[in-house]
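Quick question, first post here. What does this chain look like in 3D?
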Amino acid sequence: MSDIDSLVRQYKAGALSRRGFFKRAGAYGLLMPAASSILAMAGPANAQTPSRGGWLRIAQGNTDNTLEPVRMVDTDDGIYSNCVYQRLTRFAPTLEVEGDAAEEWSVNATATEWSFKLRSGLIFHNGQNVTAADVVESLSRHIAEGSESPAKALLSTVTAIEAPDAMTIKITLSSGNADLPVIMSDYHLAIHPAGHADFSMAIGSGPFKVMEFIPGERVVLERFDNYYEEGKPYLDGLDFIPVPDANATLSTLLAGDVDAIRDVPAFAVEQLDSNDSVTLHNTPTGAFTNMVMMVDRAPTNNPDFRKGIKHALDRELILNQVFKGIGTISADTPIGPTYKYWCEDVVPAEYDLDKAKFYFDRAGVNSIDLYTSETAGSSANDIALTFQQSAMGAAEINVIKTPSDGFWSNIWMQNPMTMSGWQARPTVDAFLTLAHMNGGSWNETMWGSEQFDAMIIAARAELDEAVRAQMYCDMLHMMNDDGGFVNAVFQNQLEATAKNVMGWTPHSVGGLGGFGQTLRNVWLA
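> Answer (accepted):
Ran it through. Tokens below.
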């Protein structure tokens, strides 16, 4: 099935709006007249009235999961966050920002002072009203002294977070940031009651409340009847069931033991697409499973060694062998063609074993341990092994497979070279700030400089679109040429649901429909 066929099927099933169809079709290069003709031939969408009730079983979970916003690390945590909490804003499937806890916002002329107005009548799961004081404390925890929150870098220019009244939050920045409403949609910036400290039973104001939270065993969330969107969520609740690996995940879906899975491996696409009992959701994204070379330790601190690695990577082989041709070849930056400021003239290092061997010889090192785990992405182990294959003759890559449990705390950012995995972020600035600024808790390569940080800050405040685009292009060239980030392919988000799961809207930023955003809209037929 082609990408356009998949969009048509989602539209007909009511999982994709007409507007959403045109936006996604445009991402595939389909012009508006052609897209309109396809919809005309497809006929009207099969609108269905959502029904209430039932539990959705989702294959997800590991022992590192948390509901504490300042400690959230992976996609699992982001999905739990969007189910349990609200943020001030939400990044919609149309890739536009919309209000969540905030119903409106305003800004001064220099984008340094922002005011967010809360919706009236918002209630926490414990019955308390949501107030501006709760928002101030929730956001302030990320920038408090000693905070190790991954979102600390996103808020690095915040100088004050205040509550002028019970319904208004004022945020003051040291330099302008036109993207602040988008940043406020980040899943870490969750709103909880002021003074709340027991995140084993988190309290939010999101569509679902916590019944049971045992990381690595079971997570159960039930419908919150006082959620502000009338009639939602439709489901009685969500049951998250940990499954050990990609093959087991597929088996549980096909056996009817779960209703939704994400990170479907590419080898299973044809099998699922032809199965009448499931629906496959195939969405181009900026997500990827990458290799990390930490530049603060040997041997990956050697620029020649890093160049050798990049020339030893056969990206075409990985695209075709691991992803069955589903995806987009990447340069060594985290910013791909789904982003507004993608820089097309940043190109990947050519696959050339002679060049790779030259740089390895100059570095005096031609072997390394590469640590991998499926928690970095269902394709992580296959990418590592395929890279090992492509580097033969130039370097010895010793692939070490590790369990999912404990990978992020004991392996990642502890060894010179590991696999990693990222979902897309709403903006280029959000990604660079979070993962590539000095001091960022998720700067996994430790690459960066004061000059690069200054460029990020300057681009964030630049209002001239052409100038801003060039600034980002310059930064991405620097990363591609010298950085410790290595990526072969931008992946399509491959997810699958049981045929009776309705209202599912794929999202190019975050698994399970935008880090679980779609779950408040899902119902069972």
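DSSP finds 17 helices and 20 strands in the chain.
The mean pLDDT is 91.
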